[in-house]
Amino acid sequence: MQRIRKFFKNKTFVFPVILFVVVILTNFALQYTNLGPEKFEKRYMFLLDNNIRGFLPLILLAIAQAIVLINGSIDLSIGNLMGVVAAFLVTQYTVDDSIGRFLQVFAMAIGIGVMAGALNGIFVSLVRIPPFITTYATSFVFSGIAMWILPRPGGNMPEIVTTFYRKTLPLGLPMGIWIILIIMLLWLMFKNTRFGAHMYAIGGNEKAAFTSGVSVIRHRISVHMIAGAIAAFAALALVLITGSSDSRIGGTMTLDSVVAVVLGGTPMSGGIGGAVGPIFGVMTLGFIRNIVGFANVDTWVQPLVDALIILLSLASPSFIKLIAKQVRK
Amino acid sequence: MAQNLTSIDIVKHFAGVTALSNGCLTANSGEVTALMGANGSGKSTLCKIITGVVAPDEGQLLLNGNLITVSSPVEALRSGIAAVYQELSLVPSLTIAQNIWLTREPMNGIFVKYREQRKMTQELLDLFSDTVHTSFSPDTLVSELPPDEKQIVEILKAISTNPGIMILDEATSSLDSRQVDRLFKLIDEWKKQDKAIIFISHRMSEVFRIADRITVLRNGQTVGDFESKKVKEKDLINLMVEKTKNRLEQKDTIISKQFKETVLKVTNLRTQLLQGINFSVKKGELLGIAGLQGQGQSDILHSIFGSIRFSGKIELDGKDHKFKHTSQSMAKGIALVPGDRAKEGLLMRLSILENIILPSWMKYGFPLNSGKAKKDAAKTSKSLKIIMAALNMPVSSLSGGNAQKVVLGKWLQRKPRVLLLNDPTKGVDVGTKKEFYSLLKELCATGTSILFFSSDDEELVGLCDRVLVMRDGKIRKELPKSELTLTNLISASVTSNEELSRATN
Amino acid sequence: MKKSIGFQLPKLFSPPVIALVLAVLLFVVSTFFMKGGTGFVGMLKRGKTIINITAFLGLIAAGQTIVILAGGEGIDLSAGTTVTLAAIVTAVIADKSDANLPMALVAALTAGGMVGLINGIGVAILKIHPVVMTLSVSGVTMGTILAIYRGAVQGGAGPWFNNFISMPISVGGTSFGFTGAVLAWVFVSIVIWFILNKTQFGKHLFAIGVNREAAHLSGVHVTRTAILAYVLCGVFTAFGGFIVLGYIQSVYFIIGDGYLFPSIAAVVLGGTVLAGGEGSYWGSMSGALVLTVLDSILTSSQVDVSVRQIILGILLLAVISLYGRQKALRQ
Questions:
Q1: Domain range annotation of chain A
Q2: Which residue of A48, B1, B153, B376 has the fewest CB atoms within a 10 Å radius of its CB?
């Protein structure tokens, strides 16, 4: 018993994983009840595929946010950054919509993401404005740029690409699951680089890292640039769902990314966390919304139930810790 | 590779205080040189200069006969100089392995070779095997380690850079006797590897055990350099101790005052650092606490003030009190001047007036009578002779001594019955110190009881009616006025040979 | 690398004054673009209109100011939904009659206070980060509103109140051109000035904003003060919602949303430091003026919404670079 307790003591994702398991089981139980056994079997893979594809943009944003948070910073512009890239992506195919053109556009899109991230990073590290207010301000700039490129929801993506994305089930599993697995693999590799190690060091104790010789300024700018690049991928994941974009969703997705990251066990204070937590956090968030939809809850009451569950999930770890402290006294 | 380090005539001033006026030290390869001196003698400053944390004003550093300048800790490491301090430089959220090898991780292309890093860390940890608790593995988080194991990680971090010169500044203060034994065995190994080791410790017995050479500092000057075999403990203490003109003169009244009522009584006080403290303070008494920093002195003060958790009994005027919050102790007339002025004592961004009145706003009515507050603050700053531009200037604009007066002022406003002082004259200039001393004496004369921890031994001798000497979490000796001399105090602070051998058996 | 320590601005150039000067400058510049003539009378009229409109944002920025001053990365992302909540509560209880107005006010303020209390407990006791806590609470508030009113809210404020808020007040036949909203704003500014400068709570608020440990060692109840800060924030924000109802006169569910981010921008523009302990409500008032003037210029110049956002963001960055920078790492 002591050994088990010890193993779990430090893993920040314990509660989030438990929460996730509870949520996903409830989700499928309800879908099963609603659709009946036959229909469920036929459609569960389809449902899973759809669900995950829907989560993917937020998963990527949450990972970007987690990286920034671990480094001791924060990015409140990430949703709108994604919005800029998304707007760009869907407006480039008036003449040529071949795969070649798509790849060209996507490469430029990543470039945009990186530059936007660099803007954040430079203001935070060199001009030394607190990350909260920097990214708050740049979120307005990005939102404006996105709206300027794409004033009304619309745009289009080359059909070849969207079809590939929607219809392909590599090895019978949803495309989304493969992407998530690839992300986790990339994260594992990232974590094992010196850059990754230093990221945690800076977030854990900036002064100590600096005294030990870590180049904090350069590192932080790079982290924001990476977050921008990830947001570019999130934009792609987003526009491939419907083949179009809406410049207004950026803001809510930023806030969702923060909630998802915290639900996934990454603290806002920095130095701790990973990619696993945010992935679970997003899926928990998404499946909670599904559950509330399937549970035959009154449409008007759904948002409240959804919000209460989220609030309770966020409050529980702290609450448990508080009670544990009192008991120990 | 033979390494030796020499420092010649190092001079360093800090804001009106001369920390070093003649810092000379020679550390030869294959030798352990001990650096000894009382509080404030300049030992730490000299080390900080050698390791690049502080820049010297004058003087030279020679490495193997070549002149070097060390302008940052990273540069010191490059020159092969590594140091282990009492203040920790570890990232708590990272593991032992990650901390030790930060920026020097073993790489395979762009990937960190974690397995190898773990192996190398384990080899280092094995050096201290059987002296630690079981949680000591490469993947343990530093935040989970007790102070002694954190200290060991710091030592391992330093040695992992394979330095030519190794500085251990009070590195044994958190270690138990087994760990100290092991460390000394390692030092013997390092000597065979031709490393030069500088060893600073207040524990005389350890110094005589391990040092080949002893250098003594006093008031910023090197006053002695001996082979350890050729010198006796008594002589060293005398060398560390001589008085100077600037400090407080020995009090002429050797008659002990008579104190009647007991105001404060502490029984079996325990915290993480304290192992059971018992003492009492009488009305109008100036009770001093001596001993090196980190021995738990601030815990005593904070427990009485109600700002930390403790177990034990604290009685005020005979009644048992367990203060849960500072406002409660304040209401009973207790005041605390904390040890870290910038972090604990003052609200740096606020004005002088705001700082002085902060604990007392409840006395100014509703709505707050700002005019009266201004008058009272002005009165207090005048009586303390605070040198400032105006009451509404931020307190960060004041010099150390004046800032400390503000901290004192905010408590004196309240006319406390018990005044707790945590090293109040640290970083304060001589002139202000004298003003403090007369102030404290005045307070005692009017019935305030003072509990006063200081890292300046001479100060304690000159001021106090009685001094408790602390070491390693307990009160080791009580010096009444008749026995209160500097020599006695320093002897009591320094572990005697008999006591240590008793502990290791 | 240049030294990036914020330079000490002399008192005359303190952020609230800078913001005010900026607002006035923008206003003057705008007269050359706006219709209505450049005559003094025209400018005065337009100026008063601007102030009348600013009152609402100004009121809502009050609570935000308090919470940010408290430090600990304090912020209230539930301000928008609290405004909506207060407006709805008022509308329902007043039920289009002026007689119930006092009761409606009390109810609205209580609702706001409760939201604030929940925020305060989450932040100060459960130690949940303010961004996360207030964000979640805003979701719960919105959900509660939807669950109870299901999309349609009947009711509204009474005719006298609507008139008082939206139209310039006239006393004995003469009117100064300012609406009741401005009067309410002035009233609130006096109350806030009083709280921040003339109460023990105000002193403690600044203390915990600057240094919680030192405040604790000076006898301040840090947790209690923080919770009270959030409660007051909720109350003042709710008051803002109460007043807003008189302006919009009928309720819809996204009333408050448009005020949330501008309220934060106003506080920051006014020189209140996001880390806490430094700042004033005057600053937020000036900040609100800047934002309103800027908005009116951009709206009437028919600049696209997108460009407006960009300009707002750049302005924020520029102003913050001026007075919000942190100390460099190497000292």
A1: 56-274
A2: B1
